[in-house]
Amino acid sequence: MKRCGQSRLPLVDMTRTIALVGIDGSGKTTQAHRLADALAAEGLRASYRRNAGGRRWFGRLAARLGKGDDAEDLLGRRAMLFVESVLRWLAILRTLLRRAFTGEITVMDRYAVCQYASLRARAARPAAERRARLAYRLFPRPDVTFYLAVDPQVAHDRIEARGYDHESTDYLSAAAVAYRSLPEYAGFVVIDADATPDKVAAEIRARLPIPAPVTPARSRVRTMILAGGPLLAGATALGYQLAESL
Ligand SMILES: Nc1ncnc2c1ncn2[C@@H]1O[C@H](COP(=O)(O)OP(=O)(O)OP(=O)(O)O)[C@@H](O)[C@H]1O
Ligand SMILES: [Mg+2]
Predict the structure, then answer these.
(1) Residue 233: which domain range?
(2) How many domains, in total, are found in the chain?
(3) In a domain, 74, yes or no
C-alpha cells in the first residue's frame, strides 16, 4: 500500500483491509463509502468493496415473480442461508483477489462474520455455521473490523425510511444478539452508530490505525529538517575547509 508521494510507513502497511460490519440499517454502506472517500482524499489508494450475500437481489426477484417480498419466500430459509453463504464467499474472494492485485486499502462493506451472525440470527443448525467457518477459514481476518452498534429500533426506522426493503425489529434484535455472541466480537472496534453520520464517520476515522495525513505545514517542517541537516553539515565542512585554507 502506498501513500502518494511519501515513503512507506509501517503503520500504513499494517492496515490493508478494513471491514465494516453490523446489523441491517446500522450504516455500513454509508460509512464504508465515506471512509474510502476520506482515505482517498488524504492521498491514500483506497476503495470501497461490497461483500453482499444476494439476499436483497433474491428478495427483488421474489417480488417480481409474485412470490412475496423476501428472498426466503422464494428459496426457503435453509436454502437461502446456503446460497447467501456461497455468494458472500465468492464476493469476499473477489474482493481479496482484487486487493492483492491492486495493493490498495480495501474498505469492505460486510465480511465473513456477517455470515456467521446471519446463520445464528436465523437459528441455523450449528453444523451450518461449522461448515461456513471451514469454508471462510481461507480468508484472513481484516486488519480492523468496525462493528456499527445501533439500536435495532433505530435501524428499523432507517430501513423503512430508506424505502426499498423491510426488516422486522425482532430480526434486527436477534441479529444484534448474534453479532455480540460471536467469538470474533472481542476483536471488533465498536462504534456508536446511533449518532449522526458525521459523528460516526469521525469516530471511525479517529480509531483507524492509519496516521493522519502529513499536512502541508508539517510537511514543510519535515522537509526543512531533512534538507536542513545535510545543508548545515555541508556548510560546516565548507567553512572548516575555508578556515583551514586561510
Ligand atoms: N448515522 C446515521 N443516522 C441517520 N441515518 C443514517 C445513518 N447512517 C445511515 N443512515 C441512513 O440509514 C439508511 C441505512 O443505512 P445503510 O444503507 O448505510 O445501512 P447498512 O448497514 O448498509 O444496511 P444494510 O445492511 O441493509 O445494507 C440509509 O438510508 C442511510 O442514508
Ligand atoms: Mg448496506
Answers:
(1) 215-246
(2) 2
(3) yes
What distance in Å separates the CA atoms of residue 211 and residue 85, rounded to the nearest whole number?
35
In terms of Cα–Cα distance, which of 31, 9, 35 is closest to 22? 31
- Does residue 26's CB lie within 6 angstroms of at least one atom of ligand 1? yes
Residues 92 and 111 grouped into a single domain? yes
**Residues 137, 27 share a domain:** yes
Say yes or no: 31 and 90 in one domain: yes
In a domain, 5, yes or no: no
Nearest ligand 1 atom to alpha carbon 110:
25
Q: Is 143 helix (H, G, I), strand (E, B) or coil?
A: coil
In tens, the pLDDT along 150-178 reads: 999 999 999 999 998 899 999 999 999 99
- Contact predicate 111/51, CB 8 Å: yes
Give CA angle at 148 (137, 107), nearest 5°. 60
- Rounded Cα gap, residues 93 and 190, in angstroms: 25
Identify the nearest ligand to the CA of 162 by its number: 1
Query: Could you give the 3-state DSSP secondary structure of residue 219?
Result: helix
Predicted pLDDT at 238: 42
User: Which of 212, 215, 208 is CA-nearest to residue 15?
Assistant: 208
Could you tell me if 239 and 181 lie in one domain? no
What confidence tens digit (pLDDT) does each residue in 98-143 have?
Answer: 999 999 999 999 999 999 999 999 999 999 999 999 999 999 999 9
What is the CA(51)–ligand 2 centre distance, in A? 10
What pTM did the predictor assign? 0.82
Q: Are residues 30 and 125 in the same domain?
A: yes
